[in-house]
Amino acid sequence: MTLKRTMPLAWAMALLALAGCASTGTTGTSVPPTSSATVTAPAGIVLDEHANHTTLKAVVGSTIEVDLHSTYWPAPTSSAPDTVSPNGAPTTSPSPSCRPGGGCGTVTTHFTARTPGTAHLTATRTACGEALNCPPDQRTYDVTVEVTG
């Protein structure tokens, strides 16, 4: 095979590998990469990087799990803890097969929608790898959560 023929195959394999990293929502409802999603209580909502810059509509009592797939992310926080509050401490699960400095793993934080209102679940990072700065479009995570009664 020539280099011209193997490049499209390599790109296709890389895209398939990335698609396998998406959240499947096995513990609740996975939010697709759209501008909004509506969920009813007490559904469990699972968010990841694909939900970045979206708006989620939830009801009081809904649980929200945020899984960010790099240990270079800090735990997400809520801009309005009275509206959407964290449940316990965040957890970090590094991947055992990761090369040093790769940041492979997941940072998970659980939240509960407590009262009607709006909150932002946010995280900011500057490093995307050992000595590797993040491009501007990969530095912030922000999901707007609109809670109704």
A few lines on this structure:
With 149 residues, the chain is mostly beta strands. It is built from one helix and 13 strands; from the N terminus they run αβββββββββββββ.
> Could you estimate the helical fraction of the residues in percent?
10-25%
Q: Report the radius of gyration as a whole number of Å.
A: 17 Å
Q: What is the terminal separation in angstroms? A: 61 Å
Structural class: mainly beta
Percent strand: 35-45%
Largest sheet: 6 strands, mixed
Task: Give a structural overview.
- The protein has one helix and 13 strands; from the N terminus they run αβββββββββββββ.
- The longest helix is centred in the N-terminal third of the chain and has 17 residues.
- The radius of gyration is 17 Å and the shape is elongated.
- 11% of the residues lie in helices and 40% in strands.
- β11 and β12 form a beta hairpin.
- The chain is mainly β and 149 residues long.
- Strands 1, 3, 5, 7, 8 and 9 form a six-stranded mixed β-sheet that branches. Strands 2-4-13-10-6 form a five-stranded mixed β-sheet, with no helix packed on it.
List the helices and strands and how they pair.
Blueprint: H1 3-19, E1 29-30, E2 36-38, E3 44-47, E4 55-59, E5 63-68, E6 77-78, E7 84-86, E8 91-94, E9 105-113, E10 117-124, E11 127-129, E12 132-133, E13 140-148
Parallel strand pairs: 1-3, 2-4, 3-5, 4-13
Antiparallel strand pairs: 5-9, 6-10, 7-9, 8-9, 10-13, 11-12
Give descriptors for this structure.
149 residues, mainly beta, six-stranded mixed β-sheet, 1 helix, disordered N terminus
